[in-house]
Please model this.
Amino acid sequence: MSLHYGDPQIAIGIVFAVLALLLACAFVVIGIQAGTEVGFQRVHEVAYWLRKRWLALLLVIGVLVVGISLFDLPYAGGGAASRTVVKVTGGQFFWSLVPDSVPAGTKVRFNVTSIDVNHGFGLYDPHGHLIGSVQAMPGYHNLLDLTLSEAGVYRIRCLELCGLNHSTMQNTFTVTAH
Amino acid sequence: MESATTAAPSHVLHPRAAAFTADARSIERRIGLLFALSGLALVLLMGVLGIVMRLTQATVISLSPGWFYRILTLHGAGMITGTLLVMMGALWYVLHQTVPLRVGRTLAAYGLIVTGALCVLIATLVGGFGAGWTFLPPLPFYPAGQWSVWSESLFFTGLLLVGGGFTVYCLDVLEQTTTRYGGLVRTLGWEFLRGREETAPPPQAIAATVVAIDGLLSMAAGTAIVVGLLGRTYDHTVGIDALVAKNLVYFFGHSIANLVIYLAAGAIYVLIPRYAGRPYETTKVFVAGWAGSLLFIATAYSHHLYMDFVQPTWAEIGSEIASYGALIPVAVITIYSMTMLVWGSRYRWTLASLLFYVGLAGWAIGGVGAVIDSIIPINFRLHNTDWVVAHFHTYLILCVVVWCFAFLAHLLERNADRTVSAAGRAWTISLILVGGYGLTGTWFLAGVLGIPRRYAIQPPGTTGYSLAGSIFALLLALGFLFLCLQLVPLAREAWERRHYELVERRDTWTGSRYQARVSRGPDESAALKKPADAGVPLATPAQLALGAALCVVGLAAFFPQVVDASEASIRYHHLDHAGHFFLGAMLGLLLGSLPALSNRLGQRPTLGLVAAIGAPTLMMLVMVPRFYEPLERHPFEHALYHLAMAVFGLATGLGATRLGRVTGRLAVFLAVGMTVMFAAAMK
Model:
């Protein structure tokens, strides 16, 4: 299974590329204007007027971004009654999943821990899209709730440096068709 | 901007800059050059290691995973240390013009940091330590056959020395700025903000004070966890709480990496105006912005723990707000205001000023990548992928490293009184921009693709990104090489002009005139006055009474009921030790602040500094079960051990009283905080 760009990630990448390009253009324009002579008093007046709006814009974006993000937090809430619990244990350098398969459409609660060092439980869907991650920590259990609708073989890769064979620490998790 | 004397006309600075730019003193140039050259040597070496890793990921060269991870560890620690050194020197260079920083302490900080870097170098390359520069506990103790105990110990010792060096630097900056500007509130400009004062300290002083406070807070956390891990190397019964340890590691690691750029910000407030010919002055918006930064720098670190779901959700959301909040002062009062200075200024384009300008863009673009990643649902899909590598390399390479070179170029250009050719500048910048953004661009793409970071072996089918990244990395290296080649003749000319001058002479035999090359006389620029007496931490009767009251509170740690209850776990036991330390520290602070004893102790700032840093560190080093458990069977020796904890505190408190009012109080607060954090990380 190879990796592929996931839809949310592509959107994130495009937003970043557009913003980076806009910033680059702004710096080119300012760099060109730097060679001209404009009275500092005039620069002050215009730039301070603009700075207030710039600050207001950043604050509005901040409130919106943080506010919207609160509706999509990945942290598990509520009991596990309606969920199939999959016990995930990480260790140098393996992943153990019990059970290691569920039917498609199952609401899964991954109960993730580690027996030695910190590991990162990164879950890739059958198309190779990274659909989420959670840390595996010794002495703690992190709960990750996901609904796995698509049948196929999911891959788990380690996303936290855990030693010599970190890059080969993988396993699979199967979602079977009804 | 304050300056006693203005600079002579310069061919590299803006003509208007002479009105607000003082000639650098000899000591400022020397410290600046020492830090810049040492730091850049380290940065260049680490850059080569970076290329080696990228080529390994591209399978162009073959490096075993063991070597990959030891190089990865060294690359991270070395880059942070190298850039930290340069930026410490840059801020010192601009701050010393108005604040009498101590040269001895600065050189001590330099010595500690360089020694620490050597320790890390040996621990990784010789000892094989490869747990990453973030050494997430308990990974250092699970070496998978790759490193031994001595290399763990040496790595931690190296980090302690680097952290200790930065602590010395921050303590001196804080002590001198708060003494120079009359207390912490005035130094931060808050009296000016509230309209109680007409003027505020210059921007670099406010920035330096904020960096010093946040630096001390994060170094305290770093010392607590690193000493704890060092203790674990010689006492395997010590258990580490993975979550608390991770908080401390990132509070230390994220903050020190972050503070490098804030150190740089303090320097550019002085350096960019020299090319724009417009001084950058403290405004109320500026003061408010840096007050925000003071808070946000200290709280944003927790975004590294978004995927640790056991971290309280309020802390995760708080960190998201802090991470976004940190953007606002940077975007509004640093980057925006700097472009405002540049706009329509007939900016004087030299090698240094061009690099400073390009660095602003690197900070802005890298910052956007960082802020996107700091949104929790997005981080859920990008956490520990190459996106992280992309955004921090954007602002570290294309801002911090570029500014490191800009600072060196500024020093050399001012001394040589010339810049390099326009063609040379164009080639340098083109290679750096194409190579730099190309390299980080491949990481951004790899992050979107979900490629995990820190993989010695890339997932199948993805090595093409590493190959493209390697090509861009080589272009970037070519750009920096070209830059260095241009700096060499500039340095030679700067040296000549600084040490020799041409004078008109007449041959007494023939009567003909000629120009002779003679050594320049000693630097005659006036040194700043020695620091004034910074006072004692507890100066008024009310403060002394409060100190006495806190001593009484600290006595509780010796109550038999408390001592017995603390036996429940190592964590509680260590908290009790922290209580003993607290009692001693408060007693030391109280006694050292009493006029009679304070006068007898004299100024002794160096001894005070050594005691305030050394005593709590030693106390934590001996706070391991291996040492105190055998004593528990002997009540008298056990009581003596507890008393020793209080004596360490006493030494800390007494030492802190020699550091002045503000720094002394903060030193005690941090020392006690360290012992509490140390206890919390154990189990």
